[in-house]
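User: Hi! I have a protein structure encoded as tokens and I'd like to know what sequence might fold into it. I'm fairly new to this, so please keep things simple.
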């Protein structure tokens, strides 16, 4: 089934179906491009499918529901192979809430765009257009960066010089429990380093912050060093078995190394 048919089916099965015409009409009236309307249509269909599967009451759809969908479901979504950016998803769903409000279906208020939202959008554009990262990767990095920025700035302007190395260190320590393996944990570090590097391109001095975000040691990839067997040790000592001063010195070093288990 192609994505358009799948979206149509998801909408037809969902409790949002009576409001889809009003949704389309809104975008046509606002002169949105057909490409944007199509993207939003797929976003709403995916959201509608999740609402149906989760047995949610559309009377109570609000910002928190959107957050749950984007930050929860989308991270582990297996219902579709086509992904749209978090930014587009968020925009499409905010419009949906507005339309449901306008039609008297819900009464939730739309959260205004915060400085952190704007910062994340700029970072997403950089990852997309400069780094060429995949949507799934960008979504993962944005979630981590959002947690860092939200903790520090809440709804106040994002000022990078206000982030201290200790803030980053404590953030990493708090986030550690979310990750079960060093591989997963590396994603956190990669995301933070990526964000700080992005800020470098904006002219910020953040090397001291990058230095705090270190990758965990991956000891399981290391193996014990090979040691000499008894025969090899005897051969080595025999080659040094004479009275030259330099050999006596070397022999002493070799004995020390052998006694300490270094050979
Ligand atoms: Zn899904």
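Assistant: Happy to help. Inverse folding works backwards from shape to sequence: for each of the 263 positions I chose a residue that suits the local structure. Here it is:
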């Amino acid at each position: 089934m192609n994505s358009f048919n799948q979206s149509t089916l998801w909408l037809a099965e969902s409790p949002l179906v009576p409001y889809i015409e009003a949704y389309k009409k809104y975008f046509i009236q606002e002169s949105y491009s057909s490409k944007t309307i199509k993207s939003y249509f797929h976003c709403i269909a995916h959201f509608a499918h999740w609402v149906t599967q989760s047995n949610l009451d559309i009377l109570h759809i609000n910002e928190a529901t959107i957050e749950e969908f984007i930050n929860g479901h989308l991270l582990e979504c297996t219902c579709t192979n086509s992904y749209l950016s978090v930014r587009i998803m968020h925009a499409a769903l905010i419009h949906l809430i507005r339309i449901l409000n306008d039609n008297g279906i819900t009464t939730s208020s739309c959260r205004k765009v915060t400085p952190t939202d704007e910062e994340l959008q700029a970072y997403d554009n950089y990852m997309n257009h400069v780094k060429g990262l995949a949507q799934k990767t960008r979504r993962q990095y944005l979630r981590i960066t959002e947690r860092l920025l939200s903790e520090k700035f809440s709804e106040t302007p994002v000022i990078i010089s206000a982030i201290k190395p200790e803030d980053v260190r404590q953030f990493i320590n708090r986030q550690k429990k979310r990750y079960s393996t060093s591989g997963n944990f590396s994603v956190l570090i990669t995301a933070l380093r990526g964000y700080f590097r992005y800020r470098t391109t904006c002219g910020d001095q953040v090397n001291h912050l990058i230095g705090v975000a270190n990758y965990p040691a991956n000891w399981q990839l290391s193996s014990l060093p090979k040691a000499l067997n008894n025969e090899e040790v005897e051969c080595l000592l025999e080659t040094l078995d004479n009275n030259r001063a330099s050999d006596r010195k070397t022999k002493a070093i070799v004995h020390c190394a052998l006694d300490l288990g270094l050979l």
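A useful reference point when you look it over: Residues 230-259 form one domain. Feel free to ask if any position seems puzzling.
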